[in-house]
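Dear support,

I submitted the protein below through the web form. The confirmation email said the job was done, but the results page showed an empty box. After a refresh the structure appeared. I'm attaching both so you can tell me whether what I see now is the final result or a partial one.
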Amino acid sequence: MLIIILPIPFLTGKGQSAVISKWANTHILHEEPLQQAHVGISIYEPATGKYWYQYQDDKYFTPASNTKIFSLYTGLKILGDSLPGIRYYENDTALFVKGMGDPSFLHPDFQLQRVMQLMQETSKKIYVIPAANENKRFGPGWSWADYADYYQPELSEWPMYGNVARVYHHGDTSAITPATYDLKTQKDDTLSEAVTERDERNNTFSLKYNSKDKSIIKAEVPFITGSEQQLRSRLEDTLHKHISLAVSIPVAPFKVLHSIPVDSLFTPMMHRSDNLFAEQTMMMSWALLRDTISTRRCIDYMLNGSLRSLPHPPQWEDGSGLSRYNLFTPRDFVTVLTMMYNEYPKERLWQIFPTGGKGTLRNYYKEQFIHAKTGTLSGVVALSGYLVTKKNKTLVFSVLVNNHMGKAVYVRRAVEQLLTMIWKNY
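What the results page shows now:
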């Protein structure tokens, strides 16, 4: 579908809204691929406190990964300037450690490993104290069939390696990290691409590949995090030290050992839409506030506190947006984005949110006039963030599309045409 964007006379106030409404009705809402979809649009200018355009922005939609915007705001409000790595206490003979949900531990993206350094350098006995964790390994409304897909790692009190096993294959060489897991390989020359799998109920991994394919194969497959005893074993295998589970908890002042700057987690969380980082942000936030891991309690805390002014109380179920139970309105997203814009430097937000040509927006918005978060599930396309027009006006917007039957790329292009028209003419 080719849409030609014609120059539009600059208008303000109601006339401006009328022009955008007419353009949207003519070129977007009543044309494929959005004609039969459910669409909500909200465009707001913080400087004037006025909405430029509203279309069904009080209706509820499944937002997919736009949910991460709310997780980001939670992390910004609660976590401070660095992630809480562990709670710890040490006496003359022992080091007691408790996980707080930090996903950076031994993650290959992060070289700074303060928690690992503390445990490596101590000569004292190490005792792991199990965290009070009210979360399950999957979030509510997640697809059980995606247990082995890279984008759905399990949630845990002490993630290691991003809670995924990394499979490597090239020629006759195959490897898996962590090396404690077994990898079975099988040649299958009928395959057009390699297939990595994991047994549903245990950490048995397999790789099927075409022997004629000489390219390097890399894949990530979530592992089962398991029990506290399995956590202890993973730590022991990594540190090459004896690790014990604490039988009793010392009555003593525990300290928090911080790991990495928060933005070094928030930026990849938003740029590549990292589900684990978003979920663990919610878990870390409540662990820091109450020494308990609970996404549900953290959500309720935010909705009854910093987010109590939302125009439409959302049904907020997880941190990543994998849940089909999530329901938000476009105006909710505009509200929280405006709060962020008013509370944090825009230069910081512009770094955290991907712009055109980067991250999940790498194939869109080449003029780089937006800083926004994408969202995608089957039948769902979402985009919410900030738009800076050619006349240097900053707008906050949210476009949520549900129940479309076409290809997601066509929906994204249609949204791109609308936002590009506004950028060029205002």
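Response: this is the final, complete result; the empty box was a page-load delay. The CA atoms of residues 71 and 319 lie 6 Å apart.
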